[in-house]
Amino acid sequence: MKFVIWGKEKISQLSDLEKEQWFDVLNNGLEEDRDISLDNPKISKLQENIETDYLKYLHECTRTAYYFSYFVLYNEEGVMVSVCRVFEKDHQFYLEGLETHRDYYRKGYASALVNEVILYLKEIDISTLRSSVSTSNLRSIQFHKSLGFSIYDENENKVRFQFDIMGRPRYLSSLLKRLWLLHLIRGLPYHKDNNRRYYKSSYGELIVNLILVVILIDIVYYFTLSNHLVEFILLHVFLLFLSNVMNGIRYFKNKDTQYREIAKKLAVSSTVIVAISTFIIILIQLFI
Questions:
Q1: Yes or no: is domain 2-126 CATH 3.40.630.30?
Q2: With bands split at pLDDT 50, 70 and 90, how would you rate the model's confidence at 207?
Q3: Rounded-to-integer distance, Cα 274 and Cα 239, Å
Q4: Which is it for the CA torsion 116, 205, 172, 159, positive or negative?
Q5: What pTM did the predictor assign?
Q6: Of these four, 63, 66, 250, 264, which has the most CB atoms within 10 Å of its CB?
Q7: Across the beta sheet with 150-154, what order do the strands follow?
């Protein structure tokens, strides 16, 4: 099987075949959804209008602020068998539009696709994935439960599910990263489908992490290593190296201008933070 991600840039470059296969996955009972009889003498024109509407919606995704990505699964024969999309709103990620081609029902493709989506979101440090299902859709409710989604809200119309991607509370994950400097070592993640909002969010997390670690090092130095200024400065230089080395490697490997902008900004910001911290400690050493 082949797992493909359609970010905004990819959607604008889709071939006619990809669009046709995508619509074919979704095109099951669309006439019924719109109360259109298959006996209608104008059925061909109405079906053509439905396809036009769907393709228009697909391209409008590129101009939607909340749109994150479409995720597509092909089988071993290269046939597009399952699709879904993920939207981001208020720093929460939502699974929507999960569909499998009518000729490939009950073969595990939908489960395989959602599992791939979860793995991808985990790679880019997304902690939870949410989904909303109609209370009358018992099949979908059971499907979500079988994948490990848990109900976090429910009313007479909707059942809202959440999947804990990290397997532990986000604050604990964040604490462990800061404690072991893992966040700084990993640096700013790069994936070709990340948007500007995601890069800014990652940049903010790294800067907060760097400031906290610098403060911790300064406190430890002040109370235990006050006579070892050279070692202190070298430790700060090493910390600066940690906070930028992975970004530098990714900077030269990709041509993503958004990533490079944020990577440069992070390099300048981290240098300023470390330099100011070092300068303050030297002043304290000289005058106190």
A1: yes
A2: confident
A3: 8
A4: negative
A5: 0.61
A6: 250
A7: 2-6, 67-74, 80-89, 92-100, 128-134, 158-164, 150-154
Name the burial class of residue 34, with classes exposed (0-12), middle (13-18) and buried (19+) by CB atoms within 10 angstroms of its CB: exposed
Q: 11 with 58: CB under 8 angstroms?
A: yes
**pLDDT band at residue 42 using 50, 70 and 90 as cut-offs:** confident
- Our separate counts of H helices and E strands in the chain read 11, 7
Q: Give the contacts of 121 (CB within 8 A, at least 6 positions apart).
A: 86, 93, 129, 165
Tell me, rounded to whole angstroms, the distance of Cα 47 from its chain centroid: 34
CA-nearest of 77, 74, 144, 137 to 109 is 74
What residue segments make up the domains of the chain, in order of their start?
2-126, 170-287
φ and ψ at 108, to 5 degrees? 85, 5
Instruction: Please enumerate in sequence order all residues whose Cβ is within 8 A of that of 131, keeping only pairs 6 or more positions apart, or say none.
Output: 94, 95, 96, 144, 149, 160, 161, 162, 163
